[in-house]
Amino acid sequence: MASVSPGLCSENTLSTAQKAKEDGDTESTSSSFSSSDYNYDLEPEWLDDIQKNGELFYLELSEGEEEAALARVAASQCLSTNHVRFSEKEAEVITEQAGTQRRGSRRKGEPALKKLARILGRKRRPSQRKGGKDGSRGKATPSPPASILKTQPGQQQGVAVQQRRRLKEACVYLNPKRLASSPTPLCERGGLLEALLGVVHRPAWTGGQTDRGAVRQDGRLTVHGLIPNSPAIKCGQILIGDVLLAVDDVDVSPENIERVLSCIPGPTQVKLTLETAAPVDSAAPSDSSPAQKMKASPPVSQLVRLLWGEDTAELQMAIGHIPHIVMYLSLKLDSSSLQEEEEILYQYPVSEASSQLKGVRGIFLTLCDMLENVTGGHIISSSLLLGKHLVHVGYWKEHNNLLVVGLPAERVPLLSLQTVVGDVVRTLKVMYGSLNSAFCKPDHAPRLDHFFCLFFQQLIQPWRLREGAPPPLPDVSGSLFLDGLPAVRWLTLPPEIKMEVDTVLSDFESSDFGEMSEDFFGLRRLYVILGSCLFYKSYLIANHLPKEDLLDVCLYCQHFCLLPLASEQRVGQLVIWREVFPQQRASGGPAPGFSQPQGRHFLLIVGLRHFMQCVLLEAGGCASPALGSPGPDCVYVDQVKATLLQLNTLEAAMEERLNVPSAPCLSCADWFLPAATTRDRLDSLASSSPVLSKLAGAIRGSPSGHRGRSLFGEKSRRSSPQRSLSDSGSEGPMDAGSGLPAAPGLSPHSTPDSGRRIGGRRDSLGSDGSGGSGGLFKMPRMKHPNPFYLGTLKKTLTDRETEEMYNTTKLTSGTENTLFHYVLMETVQGIFIAPTHREVAQLSGSIHPQLICNFHHCCLSIRAAFQQSLPARGCRAADRSQRSGWGLGPVKEHGVLFQCKPENWTDQKKPAPTMTYWVIGRMLLEPVPQEFYVCFHDSVPEVPVEMAFRLSFGLGL
Amino acid sequence: MLQDGSTQLLCLTASSGVPLFTRGASKQLPFSVIGSLNGVHMFGGGQGALLSSCETEGGGKVVWKVFHDSVMLIAVSGGGSSGACIGEEESRLQRLLENVWSCMVLVLGQDELVNLRNIERLKRDLRSCFCLIDKLLEEKHQGVLGDLTHCADSLVPPNPTPLQEAVDGFAQAADSEFGCLFVHGRIVVATEKWWRLAPQEVVLLCALVRTLSASGSASCDYPVFLPQGSPTVAHRLLRFQLLPGADVCVLCGPTPSLQKAETELVGRFWSPLIETLRSCLAVGERCLPGSVPLRPDVLALLLINRETRRSVSCVQISSHHPLSDSSLSKSRCWELLKLFYIFSISRYFTQEETLCGSPEESTQSSHTEDFLHGFSHQPQQCYLVTEECKSYGLQTQQHQFFLLVLPSVPTFALRTVATQTLADIISATAF
């Protein structure tokens, strides 16, 4: 902890909490968020989690999410165990009390880390379930009242009737942190039992108030009442009259219950063992719908568990048979050392398949040393055949040490191996400064294990970390391609929202914290805020960081899956603090005369709900130098939180933006295939054809004077081919459907002359084409739905509406929208845009997901071709004379045509229909370096360079 | 250190690591390097980790391969030879190693190579393969892509019928079913049985005939083993020069003698066809008869018939072309065509494998196509726009077609140009 007076802290949290109240939004979940996120306590929740070296990784899911996730885990009877996190001291207390607890394997060298007290070998009853989502989310009304007030007649007689008593187990989610924040003072009488669990127990209950009046038995914790909206009532299984026997298998009595409950340090799920008079199953029959059980899927929390540092063994076991390894080897031989395997400085994982790779490390060392003398370059990769598995091994040499990463070829093709290895090295460098400092400190080992566990899990079985069942077709290349791009996924926002976001961020970055700031007390600043960037649901929406810093930060976020985390589930609170070593700053500034201040840098990431802000701080330089390993500073954390809360008001706007199909409309591949079944055909007809014919009609009816410059005037909305500036007739073929009489031009059989003419002109588009197409995109486009995703709407459409709908910008030419997918990367800013996940999900279909996988796979190849030509570009002049070593030369554009057929084509009489589409990549150097990848239907010849310009200007990048 | 762009071939015995020969690169690698390269592979094999390839910065590449557990071949290519992308150089070297092995079998027979009884004698015997192996290593060799495509380089004559009849008759008279006519080292016509030989054998026989005819002798009698057909029993390859640049050859048994065939048969069958042969020679490097129109902006093309495993390739540089970039030389065009072929094949198109050796070896080498298997849909066509030219490749059920055109051709017209050119060639020659 940096030295900030507690007074400062508390005032600050107060102010933020007030702000939160002002911001209070109308969503039903707001209650949970405001109660879990704020506290009047002096200490923030994450304080206990700060490690000795000042690092912090604190993740707390929002209430609803976490409960749902945990309940799903429990209900699905998943094999993994549940864990309760206890801090060291308290866990010991429990161990004393109940010998049944076993201590989880403690990670050595991390005394300050959360300790895990693992409670293994529980039996769960299959009938167990929770009250359902509405129950946990509902504001005040507990969902099925029947489940709380027992309706069985047997109960009415009270406890004296000794029915067959049964034991039942209930899992509840408890968050002791919320205690501090609850407005009611800690219950005078009920203590933690009431405050935390929501169970009312009156030791001297006299009975009068309820007619079923649970009679008190000495030494038994009978449930006399339930507090509304408490965990106990939400879980729906704790009934009045039940007797609480054990918490997490620790026997409890009125005497020790407070102590046991106080041992729960953080948000977790606990298992309550209760004695009840009625069979549980009959209590709430509506709950046991199979659908709910089907929905249950443990992976929700797999990622979170992994991030919490729990439960890596099971995940790692699942890929134990796939050979993969990371080793850090020393090339220096020290014969005096007696240690075994001393050349291995670090190794992960320890499995059978990886031990085989470890066994041949001599190969890696020899090759690394020798090949440099043979071919004159460092070794990059080698391929090995281990049994049936082909393994690609990537190398990274630093000083006298060698990092070796072995990955299965079916997951990481050779083309992208170098990118993957380069990224992991850069991430390590950002986190630790250099590979040597990362690997050579023995106490880093557990953390590195965790790091590489995440690394391999993401590469080898990414679906285990995501929600839901494994997709039939894992888009491995998709993540390889998108993560490998030196850019971050960007979400374009409407200008007014964008401005607001930027203003809020700038306000924060000005470090003008008013009474909170160090200036106010006449102190030197602790940190200078170098910049920050803001993510919403894994999309970057604002960035005030230089590109290289942004990439560093993004690599870190990517590695720890923070982006998908924020998009899939609402993060209750995420606070990450660590020292980082931004690569650009570490290697010295680009300008020779200017030297970067020799400061230390810290990364602060704060996430609330779907927002996540990453702040890069500098200590030293202008601010006071950092001593030792400072932990997160409350003021800065709270200021970021305040910023995020301020931004929360924009969430609705963001959602709206995400729901609206973005600038270029997309088509679904399935619409272009003659459907296999009639139902499909109807669907596709409904979704595309009527609109299309209407559109075509509208255009046909329009006067033909829409060509030429007027395209970009008022009337441009009606004309289909927003294609070019250079049209004067020669670029007309795409208008075939619209029936424009002119344009004999570039039909497929054009003469070379006309072709050349156009080719020449095309190149000039970059300069003079910009203004016009920029104007084209200023048309309002926000609210219009995708014309090809209309569904039932189309019946009510008037012609006018159809026309308006057509205003939605279309990237492709021709009447039909043939665009399937696109990725545009802006190299200078380090961002890329692509259709949002939601947009892609809307275009459901059987072929389309395949198509996107294929697109990404092809992009890997295209980008590799671009990359390969980059060095050639550099030394072009020198090489041109001597032809050898020139290769294919710099690749500007590369396209591949694919053909797809519907799967399981049953009709034997007719051949399966086919659909062909292009995947094209284009590298632009002027006016700004960009890479553009697009996938569209084959029916219209496109000029990718134009599409790229259209896209980038249309989105105002 | 290896020079940029050169490829060195190392051959050792797999079990004992005795070097048999090294070819390529003017400067031989030091023996310690050769030993280590062999050693790491041997060690890995013992540990169940079979090393297959390695890559270094700047495009350097090492590829290992063991044939029949007896001979180890290692290809080392210095950086930047072709500047090709990662997968491409590897598939080129893999193919080179296969070809070299087949060459050795072709000349020496499989028995001698698999059962290493006398290493010193083998070393001496292997010298007879050197000229053939050097031909394979020689990258500058223009106009022949067969070693890469494993499809026989062909030349389409203007008037094939009399030539076909002559070859059939000539082979029959020589007690053989395998007869073939070469012009400029490319196959013009051949007997039906000749085409039934494994494609790789056909390609190697072409290479052999080229080296033999380059020696300048009018005729020769050369014993050959067929790597697939008869790796242990030798046949006789009789070659006769009909005209400079035009050779005919037959594969036959013990009879007839070279003397007899040369004096009795050659004149009988071929002297009436001298004019036809001259017209074939006139087709020259274009490989396609003049009746096939080619657009002026076509720089080079390669057409492969996937069924008959024949290929036609040509480079047309018209120096007087107003728009042609004079910097694009003929050799560069061949290089680009080759590179584009490897690029497309290693990433998108399938290549029919004809592998020598055991099945486990074939699985080992097929992993270079792993990237190809990652596609969920079938790639049909592809194009590449570079600074020097534009390239277009397409694949149909029967053909693979690769075309290089001038950069001035608009990109969106490439497809039309390619399909049109393909259709023109097929309709004119029925290739």
UniProtKB/TrEMBL annotation, chain B:
Keywords: Cytoplasm, Cytoskeleton
Domain FUZ/MON1/HPS1 third Longin, first and last residues per copy: 298-426
Matching InterPro entries: FUZ/MON1/HPS1_longin_1, FUZ/MON1/HPS1_longin_2, FUZ/MON1/HPS1_longin_3, Fuzzy
FUZ/MON1/HPS1 first Longin domain location: 8-136
Main location group: cytoplasm
GO CC terms: cytoskeleton
UniProt key word Cytoplasm: yes
Domain FUZ/MON1/HPS1 second Longin intervals: 176-270
Subcellular location per the Swiss-Prot or TrEMBL entry: Cytoplasm, Cytoskeleton
Gene Ontology terms: biological process: non-motile cilium assembly; vesicle-mediated transport
PANTHER family reported in the protein's UniProt record: INTRACELLULAR TRAFFIC PROTEIN-RELATED, PROTEIN FUZZY HOMOLOG
Family note: Belongs to the fuzzy family.
Protein name stated in the entry: Fuzzy planar cell polarity protein
Source organism of this protein record: Poecilia formosa
